[in-house]
Amino acid sequence: MNVLGANVAEQCIEARLLDEVLVFVAPVLLGDGVRLFHHPGGTNVRLTPIPGEAAHWYSVVH
């Protein structure tokens, strides 16, 4: 399953539905956007790099 968008990904991580995350960084000059994993007062999301994979491919530590 592929999940697109920071808000949807955040909801899936909260529901413990995601096991891995591939992060693409795309700077935007217009608008605000949504911060990935922004949780004021919430639990931290722990990510572990997956050995041998792309530089931005992580396993979600549950």
Order of helices and strands: HEEE
Morphology call: globular
Q: What average pLDDT do the residues reach?
A: 78
N-to-C terminal Cα separation, in Å? 18 Å
- Please tally the helical runs, counting DSSP H or I stretches of 4 or more residues: 1
Strand portion: 15-25%
Outline the secondary-structure elements:
Elements: H1 6-14, E1 20-22, E2 46-49, E3 57-61
Explain this structure to me?
The protein has 62 residues and is an alpha+beta fold. The chain has one domain (6-61). 15% of the residues lie in helices and 19% in strands. The chain has a 3-stranded antiparallel sheet with strand order 1-3-2, with no helix packed on it. β2 and β3 (57-61) form a beta hairpin. It is globular. The model has no long low-confidence stretch (mean pLDDT 78).
In short:
With 62 residues, the protein is an alpha+beta fold. It contains one helix and three strands, in the order H-E-E-E.
Give me some keywords for this one.
alpha+beta; globular; 1 helix; three-stranded antiparallel sheet; single chain; 62 residues
